[in-house]
Amino acid sequence: MAEKGTISIHTENIFPIIKKFLYSDHEIFLRELVSNAVDASQKLKRLAQLGEYKGEMGDLIVDVKVDKEKKTITISDRGIGMTADEIKKYINQIAFSGATEFIEKYKDKGEDQQIIGHFGLGFYSAFMVAKLVEIHTLSHQEGAEPAVWVCDGNTEFEIKDGDKKERGTDIILHIADDSEEFLEEFRIQQILDKYSKFLAIPIRFGEKEQQEEDGEDKDGKKKWKTVKVDNIVNNTAPLWTKSPSDLTDEDYKAFYKELYPMAEDPLFWIHLNVDYPFNLTGILYFPKLKKDMEIQRNKIQLYSRQVFITDEVKDIVPDFLQLLHGVIDSPDIPLNVSRSYLQADGNVKKINGYITKKVADKLGELFKKDRDAYEQKWEDIGVFVKYGMISEEKFEEKAKDFTLVKNIDGKFFNIDEYKKQVEATQTNKDKNVVFLYTSNEDQQHGYIETAKKRSYDVLILDGPVDSHFINHIEQKYEGVTLKRVDSDVVDKLIDKDEKKESVLSDDDKTKVEEAYKKAINDDKNTITVEPMATDDMPVTITMPEFIRRMKDMQAAGGGGPMMFGDFPMTLSIAVNANHVYTKKILEAGSEEEQVELAKQAYDWAMLSQGMLSGKRLTDFINRSVELASK
Ligand code: ADP
Ligand code: MG
Question: Which CATH number do you get for residue 202?
Answer without folding.
Answer: 3.30.565.10
